Amino acid sequence: MDSLWQSKYNIELNPRMGNHLSSQKSFLPHIKEGAALRVSIPLKGITEKVRFPCFFDAATPPQFSLRFPLDSLDFDQVDSERPCTVMIDLAEQTVAVDADIVRFEPPCILHFQENESTTHTQTRNYFRVDATARVAASSVVPANMAREGESWRMLGDTIDLSGSGLLCAFSEPLEKGTRVRIELTLPTQDMDVINALGHVVRCRKIEEGLYHAALHFDLIDSESQDKIMACCFELQRRYLRMRVSLERPI
Fold this sequence. Notes:
- This protein is mainly beta and 250 residues long.
- The chain is 14% helix and 44% strand.
- A 6-stranded antiparallel β-barrel has the order 1-2-3-6-5-4. The chain has a 6-stranded antiparallel beta barrel with strand order 8-9-10-13-12-11.
- A hairpin with a 7-residue loop joins strand 11 (179-185) and strand 12 (193-207).
């Protein structure tokens, strides 16, 4: 079986090795081995990339590798012809690294080639965690008081979550600075619904029909914020347990 995997996957896949931006500063040397990251990976037959938790394995810039929890990613489903996006939190910045998959290493490691990276300054003072939950963004103007075009509601899913904001995926764009009413269903056993007022920090088009919008909480009660942080701590504990199981020798 090992030889079959070796012949099937342990080969160079992408000829685009010269496409990385050598003149651009690489953030790879700043990442500690074993750091928890997030990567959006294209899968065959699916337009939208799927986000997976992973851990930084090693790097010789511009190449690096990521380790995935066992059985969390089916290599046969990965579309290596499309680039991936790796999200890295460094100090006061979030770095998005665009990278190509260059090699599979069974059973759980992918090797990448860094192409380019963009940074976003974080305005949140709370740590964030990957979290998939239902979220609704709507107009702050009540429906019974809204003029034509002022009342709207948009459903989506969170990508990550913190005590002061969240990153969401929507099918339509939201203009930067727009004030929004946020309804968030926490991914907990009780499925608490959080209501808050906020604004759009940024919105980026990922592809047709998919936009990532960062929302900041401007008005939220302390009890709701405590519930969000409790949820974040619980998710973080899960990821730590996942990391321990990865590092435990077989």
